[in-house]
Design a protein that fits this description.
- The complex is a heterodimer.
- By secondary structure, chain A is of the alpha+beta class.
- Chain A contains seven helices and eleven strands.
- Chain B has a domain of 247 residues: Up-down Bundle (Cytochrome Bc1 Complex, Chain C).
- The chains are: A alpha+beta, B mainly alpha.
- The interface between A and B is large, with 121 and 160 residues.
Chain lengths: 351, 582
């Protein structure tokens, strides 16, 4: 156990520089408040006044709490509500004046003689180490753990296997992913409707250059009893994958991807709104260049070129939704997306 | 300065006066008979703490944590951690009648229908900013002054854990209101998790209780935010403080301040008053900020909707560094055997912060390995006297700062009318080149400062008095610095000389164990020490002072004449020293 012993000789670095002798602690300098009773009294009054100011602030806090209303208008005063400003300043003042008073007291009136305390090494003295080791080995010896490997090993085994139930207990935190990420609520013939209002869209409603935030019709659908078909979690999950943007451009400008020649209607294209980087909804459109910019991390997609990435950290084009027109002349989906939307994940290419 | 100390106020010299047993005394007796507190308090009531403004930085972190606990408890009385849908019908006109989660509705209630609710919400957010910012600066102070060296390495590790936990606590906290901005942050976090190879999708589904966004994430983040992380923080802070007390605080070198002692003011009364008063100041400052500075106005963002986002979405500043890395990372993705590896997300947001944090965590151990230094260090080092260490942290800071700035590339582009593409391309190069330039510049800068110190020690300080010799030449008068200043400047470690650097033989001539990394270690040691300037030795100082005396002889003709230069150096009486007339 030699490695446990403290060995100051082991230092292989030269000692501290001592080219100038230590002149020792400088003499204590008396403060004005130590030697002049008038100044001492004044400092005492200052401290007490600060405490009184704190009391005044506390009372002001009570007054403003009961006198001022909240919630009328959050931008009445300095961009904040009057109540908030008054409460903040009065309560803050009450606290600050106590703090400043106490510190002023310490600085001006409390004894300011520096005192010296000697340090002790962080390490325990050698005899303590010896005693500890002795106690440890005696305890180990008395337990017999070294002499009884059967007990030791089965104990280790049982504690290790105990991890399994602990981990398995967390299994119901969520369902397994399965193929949930590979599909959205879009189906063949589902109408593309405007976001927020939910009205269906005719090709003629869009001018060249128009960009529309859209959703599948089912987001707004109601059943016979007037209840929404999708609600709560289901609605949020559906929206987080199915949101799309519609853009109408001059058909001559567009270079459709291979096999996507008939996915557009009169130059109207439909792409997933969910960024393929980490999943922000994209909607910053540069009308002249057909570029779509994600506001989160600035990935830029060229909508006239199969939504390929032209700039930024995204690695894949936005998935495209094949469009068609139904019997009433409204835009509908030909099918669901042909690839998973949103951020990449390990099993993405498996399906 | 002579002071009449005969009138020293009684408060400074009053001896303890024996009093009758009081009620307080009886209570203390009751407690001591059961808890034995006197033994514990005996050592600590008059424990000495050294004084320096930079020792206050950690205190800001400590007190803002207390403010966070207090204001946080207040917030939990109204906040509802639920994603259940409700229709808002509170005081805020613009959102009335809109469907939103209970979490968001209760955040609005706190802001508009609970008196003082907005104040406490904003205090809580500002205190979080103070907490994390002061931890960052405290960490820099500790590292730049060498306070992370033996025996305090483990306290450094605890401090780093506090920093990372504090940032996670901040992220989980600002996600709770479930507004559009924080929801966008959670959405990104979902993307980050999914980028992890093999298990990413499972991590996401287990955390969200199914597909994003699900209805579990807010309640789960709430448990993490109010129970799990605060508990860990509390325990680690306690350990941090206990170790601080056990090791005793480091101090700056100076006359009478050595490795063996600690000089300063006692815990009771001075430090109790200063630290206690400072708690009120931090608390008061957070309150005033909460009162007059709007922060995170969730009512302007609206409820979270996975199909919406606002331009200029930014995380809170302390999350900016990985976000910047994410923004400037090129779009790389590998598709192999039916699996996808999104390097563009996984590298900058999972791997890079992990690597940087690990580097931070092991810094004291790497330094000890390079230097082979096994001594205890209680005296702080000036940053200039460890040029390579200082330079390394500055290069880390440069990397951090560049990545942080990259997280604002859209804001920079808009405000300065620059191309966001060019900013991004610039940053891609700068994060590699910048830290190297910063390292070299800082190291040389430190060494120059060391030279300047030696100049002052050997040739004295510049008096600002110009002398004209009979021949017409001009010189500036230098005068030796006081012994106290000279001692403070010279009392520092003497770096190992070149011979020591290239060998692992210790002081007893024993060959150290050799390993495969010896070559690397030797090169790093060379980098650590090779160009450093050592404080002058006693002989060098003596010789320099002889030289100065000789110069003084040459100027002896001027000696004793009015205005020979001594008068205006601030150390001599000016009385009876008229200016030279002609």
């Amino acid at each position: 156990m030699t490695d446990l012993q403290h060995d100051p000789q082991h230092d292989n670095l030269p000692a501290i520089n001592d080219s100038v002798s230590d002149p020792g602690l400088p003499a204590h300098l008396w403060r004005p408040t130590d030697v002049d009773p008038r100044l001492e009294k004044r400092a005492e009054r200052q401290v007490a006044s600060l405490f009184v100011l704190s009391m005044v602030c506390a009372v002001l806090f009570l007054v403003s709490y009961f006198a001022l209303k909240v919630g009328d208008n959050p931008t009445v005063f300095l961009g904040s509500g009057a109540s908030n400003v008054a409460l903040g300043l009065s309560f803050g003042g009450a606290l600050l004046f106590i703090g400043i008073g106490v510190i002023q007291w310490a600085r001006k009136l409390m004894d300011d003689h520096e005192i010296i305390e000697m340090r002790h090494p962080a390490a325990s003295p050698p005899e303590d180490r010896e005693a500890t080791l002795a106690a440890l080995s005696q305890g180990t010896e008395e337990s017999g753990i070294a002499r009884r490997p059967l007990i030791r090993n089965t104990l280790l085994g049982s504690v290790t296997i105990l991890l399994a139930p602990v981990v398995v207990l967390l299994r119901d935190l969520g369902p397994l992913p399965g193929d949930k990420l590979e599909s959205t609520v879009w189906t063949q013939g589902m109408r593309v409707v405007r976001d927020v209002v939910g009205t269906p869209i005719r090709a003629a409603d869009l001018e060249i250059g128009d960009l529309v935030n859209a959703e599948p019709e089912i987001i707004f659908a109601v059943d016979e009893e007037g209840e929404h078909v999708l609600e709560g979690v289901e609605l949020q999950v559906a929206k987080s994958k199915a949101a799309v943007i519609l853009l109408r451009m001059d058909p001559d400008d567009n270079t459709p991807g291979p096999g996507r020649e008939n996915w557009s209607v009169d130059g109207i294209l439909c792409y997933s709104k969910i960024c393929t980087h980490v999943g922000c909804p994209i909607s910053l459109n540069e009308r002249k260049t057909h570029h779509l910019l994600c506001p989160c991390h600035q990935s830029t997609f060229d909508l006239a070129d199969a939504a390929k990435v032209v700039f930024g950290p995204a690695a894949r084009p936005l998935p495209q939704l094949p469009l068609a027109v139904d019997a009433d002349g409204y835009l509908v989906a030909q099918s669901d997306f042909t690839e998973p939307v949103g951020p990449s994940y390990w099993g993405r290419d498996s399906g | 300065m002579s002071v009449d100390t005969s009138k020293v106020a009684t408060s400074n010299s009053s001896a303890a006066i024996a009093k009758k047993p009081s009620k307080a005394g009886a209570a203390a007796n009751w407690a001591d008979e059961r808890l034995g507190i006197a033994t514990l308090a005996k050592k600590n009531l008059r424990k000495v703490f050294p004084d320096h403004w930079s020792f206050m930085l950690g205190e800001i972190a400590l007190w803002s944590f207390v403010v966070l606990l207090l204001s946080g408890v207040f917030l939990t009385l109204w906040y509802v951690p639920s994603m259940g849908e409700v229709t808002y019908n509170g005081s805020y006109d613009q959102l009335r009648g809109i469907e939103m989660s209970e979490a968001y509705a209760s955040s609005l209630k706190l802001s508009f229908d609970v008196r003082g609710g907005l104040l406490l919400r904003q205090m809580h957010h500002w205190a979080a900013m103070l907490f994390i910012a002061s931890m960052f600066i405290h960490l820099l102070r500790v590292y730049f002054t060498g306070a992370h060296r033996k025996p305090r390495e483990l306290n450094w590790v605890i401090g780093c854990l506090l920093l990372i936990l504090g940032m996670l606590e901040g992220f989980t906290g600002y996600s709770l209101p479930d507004d559009l901005l924080s929801g966008t942050g959670i959405r990104s976090a979902d993307g980050f998790m999914k980028s992890i190879p093999v298990v990413g999708t499972y991590v996401s589904f287990f955390l969200f209780g199914g597909e994003f966004p699900g209805e579990s994430i807010i309640p789960r983040l709430y448990t993490i935010h109010v129970l799990l992380i605060p508990g860990l923080l509390l325990g680690l802070i306690a350990a941090h403080m206990l170790l601080l007390v056990y090791h005793k605080h480091t101090q700056w070198p100076g006359p009478g301040r050595t490795e063996q002692n600690v000089v300063g003011f006692p815990m009771l009364p001075v430090y109790a008053a200063k630290a206690g008063g400072f708690f009120f100041i931090v608390f008061g400052l957070a309150t005033v900020m909460g009162g007059i500075l709007t922060i995170n106005p969730v009512w302007l963002y609206g409820p979270y909707d996975p199909s919406k986002v606002t331009a200029g979405s930014q995380p809170d500043w302390y999350m900016g560094m990985p976000d910047g890395a994410l923004r400037i990372m090129p779009g790389l993705e590998t598709h192999l055997f039916g699996y996808t590896l999104p390097w563009n997300v996984f590298l900058p947001i999972i791997v890079l912060p992990g690597v940087l944090f690990t580097i931070l965590l092991v810094l004291p151990f790497i330094e000890a390995w390079i230097t082979g230094d096994k001594r205890n260090h209680h005296l702080l080092e000036r940053p200039r006297n460890a040029p390579s260490r200082t330079a390394f942290m500055v290069s880390l800071m440069t990397l951090y700062g560049l990545l942080w700035a990259a997280a604002g590339n859209d804001i920079i582009a808009i405000k300065l009318h620059l191309s966001i593409n060019q900013i991004t391309y610039f940053m891609r190069g700068a994060v590699f080149v910048g830290p190297v330039i910063a390292f070299i510049l800082t190291r040389r800068w430190c060494i120059s400062l060391q030279r300047s110190d030696n100049e002052t020690l050997l040739h004295g300080y510049e008096t600002g008095v110009l002398m004209r010799s009979p021949e017409g030449g001009y010189t500036e008068r230098h005068l030796p610095i006081a012994q106290e200043s000279a001692y403070t400047l010279t009392v520092r470690d003497r770096d190992p000389v070149d011979d020591d650097v290239t060998t692992t033989v210790d002081a007893n001539g024993v060959q150290g164990p050799s390993g495969p990394l010896d070559g690397l270690r030797r090169r790093l040691r060379t980098l650590m020490y090779a160009d450093n300037i050592q404080a002058p030795t006693r002989d060098e100082l003596t010789e320099a002072h002889h030289h100065a005396d000789h110069e003084h002889e040459l100027a002896a003709a001027m000696e004793g004449r009015p205005a020979d230069g001594h008068q205006f150096d601030g150390k001599h009486e000016l009385e009876g020293e008229p200016l030279r007339k002609d």
